[in-house]
């Protein structure tokens, strides 16, 4: 008896008992993705589908394995070549959002391949693809089976609940969807084992559809659930963190972790926590974590029936507040006279450091002037007594006490910076670009203390001591800067030069009407040597030039020997190929009367 006939008879028998349900129309296709604690892959995802209206389900919840409260997205790629770009989908799901991490969307799929991924930083390796079939080719339906699991009594009944797992395979186009129907209800998309806990008899029908649209025959699992003894559900436990945070989300000085556990059956018996891999400790009041650094806080709860919840985890970082101001100091440099006064000018250098949050700003002021941001040593050249004040502030907002240095500047000395010029030379094309390379020469002069150093830098490179002209050969636009410092320490303003280096044009074709025969042929004699281009647009046949006028055959042979010897010397031609070409020239008779029929010239003598 065939399986189909058995199914028909079984359906008729169940109808007599009032348990059969009428056939229902196939539902809109449903594709389900699930998320867990992983940041590298989705917990489950489809590999194939059919074209048409489709319900997309994305669930990222505790039920699908996300116990840390981490968010994921399900995003369809709309830009990468090779994939369908007609569906715009971007679902953000979190176990603690208003939908408890389960979201749906309705889209219309077309035949082809779709790519999906997670857009959250650190989760971008969560990526995959699925194929939408056009429904042709595969005509074999999937195979689908069911397995029922759970605690059973002596009669085989399931105590309190039964879990039904469905498995579908398809060797053709692949499984597109699996569905189940419980106790005559509506058909539902199967994405995870189905837990049934209602006391009584149950029938669970199931079926699968492949990517090509073939649907399996309905299968059926039947079982009975009876009341059990006691509480088998573990408590629900969560944790929250409180405390002042900085702009990066780190907790300042202390993070306080509160754990909450509930149980609707036998009540919570105990709550425990574990900090940074230490021992499990009984929880009674919020836990204050003060150690600086990253922390991991695990927690769990047990109810009066002995059921223990899965471990939860929260991670956070504690940093210490910075309450110490920066350290700041100043030094004065320059040429001093016998009285200690600075001749011509004094240079004040301010230095600040902070071992906590770091220096945010350094400021200075000269005499009664306004405070200004300090970025480079301050040069004071006005004769007279001066006071330079300075102060610093760190990232945490701590300000140092104001400091100051006092000194006197007297007239005299060199206060004039050197003069600097920059010249660019080289071969230029019609657009003033430099061909192949440009040479930069920097010159400097100082009429007082003399030039101490000349420096240059090309584009974004480092400042370099200039000693000889600089050759720039990299193709493209360039900017060269130059500066000079004299013996008295005066630094010139930067001098700038801009130019472009372009590649040299290819040499002109010396033989625009080349002899392009495949081999070197002289007077009808084929040397069997490949007729190559020698590098200037001319071929070997061109340089042999058999059609030119020669005083005699010997003159022609001497010409061939000379030009081929030069090509050997230049590495264009091998000695063996040269000998074959010269032999063909000797046998050709070019330049004189043709050789007597049947006679062979004395090749050895002529070579």
Automatic annotation (TrEMBL):
UniProt-listed InterPro entries: BlueCu_1_BS, CBM6, Cupredoxin, Ig-like_fold, Ig-like_OmpL47-like, Ig_E-set
Biological-process GO terms, alphabetical: carbohydrate metabolic process
CBM6 domain span: 333-473
Domain of life of the source: Bacteria
Keyword Metal-binding listed: yes
NCBIfam families in UniProt: barrel_OmpL47
SUPFAM superfamilies assigned to the protein according to its UniProt record, in alphabetical order: Cupredoxins, E set domains
Residues making up the signal peptide according to the UniProt record: 1-25
Alphabetical UniProt keywords: Copper, Metal-binding, Signal
Protein name in the entry: Copper-binding protein
UniProt keyword Lyase present: no
GO terms for MF: carbohydrate binding; metal ion binding
């Amino acid at each position: 008896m065939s399986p189909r006939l058995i199914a028909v008879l079984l359906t008729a028998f169940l109808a007599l008992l009032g348990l059969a349900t009428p056939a229902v129309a196939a539902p809109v296709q449903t594709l389900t993705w699930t998320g867990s604690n992983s940041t590298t892959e989705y917990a489950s995802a489809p590999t194939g589908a059919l074209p048409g209206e489709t319900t997309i389900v994305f669930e990222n919840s505790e039920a699908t394995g996300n116990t840390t409260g981490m968010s994921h997205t399900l995003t369809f790629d709309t830009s990468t070549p090779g994939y369908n770009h007609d569906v715009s989908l971007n679902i953000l799901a979190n176990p603690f959002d208003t939908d408890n991490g389960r979201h749906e969307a309705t889209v219309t799929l077309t035949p082809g391949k779709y790519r999906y991924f997670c857009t959250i930083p650190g989760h971008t390796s969560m990526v995959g693809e699925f194929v939408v079939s056009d429904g042709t080719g595969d005509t074999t339906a999937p195979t689908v089976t069911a397995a029922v699991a759970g605690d059973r009594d002596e009669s085989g009944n399931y105590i309190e609940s039964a879990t039904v797992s469905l498995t579908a395979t398809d060797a053709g186009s692949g499984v597109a969807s699996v569905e189940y129907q419980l106790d005559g209800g509506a058909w539902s998309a199967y994405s995870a084992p189905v837990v049934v806990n209602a006391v009584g008899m149950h029938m669970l029908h199931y079926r699968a559809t492949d990517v090509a649209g073939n649907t399996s025959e309905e299968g059926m699992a039947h079982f009975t659930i009876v009341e059990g003894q006691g509480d088998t559900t573990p408590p629900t436990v969560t944790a929250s963190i409180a405390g002042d945070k900085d702009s990066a989300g780190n907790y300042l000085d202390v993070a306080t972790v509160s754990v909450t556990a509930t149980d609707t059956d036998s009540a919570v018996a105990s709550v425990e926590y574990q900090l940074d891999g230490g021992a499990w400790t009984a929880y009674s009041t919020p836990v204050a974590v003060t150690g600086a650094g990253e922390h991991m806080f695990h927690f769990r709860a047990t109810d009066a029936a002995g059921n223990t919840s899965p471990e939860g985890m929260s991670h956070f970082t504690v940093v210490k507040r910075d309450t110490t101001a920066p350290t700041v100091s100043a030094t004065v440099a320059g040429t001093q006279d016998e009285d200690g006064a600075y001749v011509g000018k004094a240079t004040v250098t301010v230095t600040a450091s902070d071992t906590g949050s770091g220096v945010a700003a350094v400021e200075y002021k000269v005499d009664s002037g306004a405070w200004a941001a300090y970025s480079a040593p301050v040069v004071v050249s006005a004769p007279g007594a001066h006071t330079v004040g300075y102060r610093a502030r760190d990232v945490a907002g701590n300000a140092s006490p104001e400091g100051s240095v006092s000194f006197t500047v007297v007239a005299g000395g060199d206060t004039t910076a050197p003069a600097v010029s920059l010249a660019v030379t080289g071969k230029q094309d019609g657009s003033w670009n430099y061909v192949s390379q440009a040479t930069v020469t920097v010159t400097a002069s100082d009429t007082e203390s003399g030039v101490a150093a000349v420096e240059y830098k090309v584009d974004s490179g480092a400042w370099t001591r200039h000693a000889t002209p600089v050759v720039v050969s990299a193709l493209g636009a360039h900017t060269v800067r130059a500066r000079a410092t004299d013996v008295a320490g005066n630094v010139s303003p930067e001098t700038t030069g801009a130019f472009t280096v372009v590649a040299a044009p290819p040499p002109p074709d010396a033989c625009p009407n080349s002899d392009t025969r495949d081999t070197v042929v002289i007077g009808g004699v084929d040397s069997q040597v490949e007729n190559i281009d020698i590098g200037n647009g001319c071929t070997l046949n061109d340089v042999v030039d058999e059609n030119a006028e020669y005083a005699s055959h010997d003159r022609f042979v001497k010409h061939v020997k000379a030009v081929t010897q030069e090509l050997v010397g230049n590495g264009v031609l091998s000695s063996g190929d040269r000998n074959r070409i010269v032999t063909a020239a000797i046998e050709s008779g070019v330049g004189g009367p043709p050789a007597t029929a049947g006679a062979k010239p004395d090749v050895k003598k002529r070579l």
